[in-house]
Amino acid sequence: MIKVIVFDLGSVIFKEDWEGLNEEFIKKFGVSTLMRSSYGQEIQNVYDDALTGKKSMADVFNEICKTKGLNLSINELCIFYKEAYQRNKELNKEIIELIKKLKKKFKVVCFTDTNNLHFEAHQEQGILDLFDKKFGSHQIGMRKNNPEAFKVILKKLNVGPDQVLFIDDNIKNIENAKSLGINTIHFEDNVQLIKDLNKFVK
User: Fold this and answer.
1) Whether 67 contacts 39, CB under 8 Å
2) Quick count: other Cβ atoms within 10 Å of Cβ 93?
């Protein structure tokens, strides 16, 4: 019997416009925010560490400035990045309303691969208020590409895997959760999610 429904955030609860964020940042500072495609492995490694809480986004921007020889205020970069990230995000209102209904019968939580600035942005926009509990990869020290992360979540929720339904748009994350016996729905669109939810939620 399902007791807890765990939602991913990005591409499920909201859609991020990474290109829009990047354009704003380049226009303001001449710096790209596309970490995977714009920079070498060293900066990508620092960004990966920000997703598991070993580093912060301030560390990421500091590394970028050091590598590029830029003399920019790290604090100003962080503030603008968070604000621009908030602007370049479109909420999935239908799924938000669905979560409000589900909360009447189930504990609804989120588990997101994120960094400190993204998590703060979600908090400030009231997105995290939707959930009974909130888990960020930067807080638990692991991303969803590591099956051990799901063991941590199960322990924190004090439930068995068969009592949990996990919803995510990333198939690798779905497979990792499924390998532990967690019920899953691979999110593709709203219509499909609502249809698949009916198999678990009466």
Assistant:
1) yes
2) 11
Mean pLDDT of 16-39: 94
Question: What is the reported pLDDT for 201?
Answer: 85
Residue 52 lies in a domain: yes
Do 68 and 119 lie in one domain? The reply is no
Averaged pLDDT for residues 33-38: 89
Domain that holds residue 75: 18-87
Assess whether 11 and 24 both reside in one domain.
Answer: no
The answer to whether residue 190 sits within a structural domain is yes
**Is the residue at 79 inside a domain?**
yes
Count of C-beta atoms within a 10 Å radius of residue 16: 15
Q: Residue 122 in contact with residue 146, Cβ under 8 Å?
A: no
Flag whether 202 is in a domain: no
Express as a percent the part of the chain with pLDDT over 90.
97
Looking up residue 10, the CATH number of its domain turns out to be 3.40.50.1000
Count up the domains in the chain and report the number.
2
Same domain flag for 73 and 97: no
By CB atoms closer than 10 A (0-12, 13-18, 19+), residue 159 is: middle
